[in-house]
Structures
1.
Amino acid sequence: MRIVVFASGRGSNFEAIQENIAKGILPDEITALITDNADAQAIAIARRYKIPAYIVETDKRTGLLSADEERRIMQVLKNISFDIIVLAGFMHIFSGEFLERLNGCRIVNIHPSLLPQYKGLNPHKRVIADAVRFSGCTVHFVNDKVDSGDIICQQLVEVEKEDNEETLASRILKYEHIIYSEALNMIRDV
Ligand code: GRF
């Protein structure tokens, strides 16, 4: 599959997918990175792998995109070859109109909780506050609601008594880097 990745920040999921492509674990190609953040570390990763990076600045860092922002993203997409959109730490949701214009193109996302629990921002903080025993991560298809599309795969991760937000986030992130590629392998031929 020709993949276009959307990332707003660190880009470790983007990098993990690209590394799996380089290792031959994924027979895919990342054709572009799109980011809303000119300071995103993901841009340096794209540069390292010679993947073209496009910056589409947005007013807000999270949430719904404006019609103009979506129009500018669509303009970039028109000049890229891709079969699937992979959101990897992209902090915005797309409108129904934008998704319709993509004409059935698959869009996937990863979220660091066991969806449908703990959708949205700061899931680890809420998991710790609720003292639940298990959390994890989920790869899912994207619709126009936050972290709400059909689930492709999940990894359960135990919350340890001494965990804080950071330790839990970093333990779950290691599994994110594994299951995102697994999910891409699962849906490739479907
Ligand atoms: C990950 O925890 C991902 O699940 C969430 O945002 C974070 C992005 O991290 N959607 P990174 O930019 O891939 O390192």
2.
Amino acid sequence: MPAPTAVRGDITAQRVDAVVNAANRAMRGGGGVDGAIHRMGGPAILDDCIARFPQGLATGDAGWTTAGALPARWVIHVVGPNHAAGERDRALLVSCYRRALEVADRLGARSIAFPLISAGIYGWPKPDAVDAAVATIAAADTAVTDARIVAFDEATFDLVAERIARL
Ligand code: AR6
């Protein structure tokens, strides 16, 4: 696919077909991006998580729900590895991006906004989290034409933009 683009802002405000949520295995909400998405999207997202994912989701996997009141149509939930808790298998982080794009293709989504998965509460070192995001999205075989990496702060935005420039 074309190179991803770097965006600075709040992922919940993105006008895209699908926003990606950095969830956990239980899929019942949490802090960070997960908290923001459930807060802004409203209770329909949690209802759909419970209905469609009674057992939650495995680390490295992706699954979709409604986006509720968000401008997006779908939320694609992924579960990144929890580096802070000792989950250090990088293939699981790469898998989150690949699987999210596969789910997007199945939905017919053409635009998607990713957060930097595992790079917050889960503590994945920021430069490697950026590298995994940019390289995996850029190499994916997908019908998605607009893939954004949404950075919350200026320093992270700069890291993402610099890595994209090196593609
Ligand atoms: N928009 C864009 N980026 C954001 C936003 C936002 N609204 N909020 C945070 N970030 P995190 P993780 C950035 O912690 O590390 C939850 O409790 C943040 O600065 O959301 O995968 C879940 O339920 C960081 O760079 O996700 C899980 O238990 C990045 O998004 C756990 O946290 C990801 O940070 C998942 O932790």
